[in-house]
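User: I'm writing a tutorial on reading structure tokens. Could you give me a worked example: one chain, its sequence, then its tokens, then a sentence or two explaining what the tokens reveal?
Assistant: Sure. Here is the example chain.
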Amino acid sequence: MKSSTVVWLNGTQVSLDEGQTIASLLLAKKINPASVVVELNTEIVQKETYGTRVLKNSDSVEVLHFVGGG
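And here are its predicted structure tokens:
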């Protein structure tokens, strides 16, 4: 049986398999990592570390999308 991790994603509680990374979370949610900025516990995460940043219980993840306009 796999352990689970509960994180907050944009204010909504989400249950993940233990050991999930930011990259795997984005993939599961069908979010293109090239078009977003990720904030983990109020800290901006560098895109090149998405695959190595493992999410832990109670982490707060904010995914910010760029919106164009004028």
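What the tokens reveal: The CA atoms of residues 12 and 48 lie 25 Å apart. The domain at 4-64 is CATH 3.10.20.30 (Ubiquitin-like (UB roll)).
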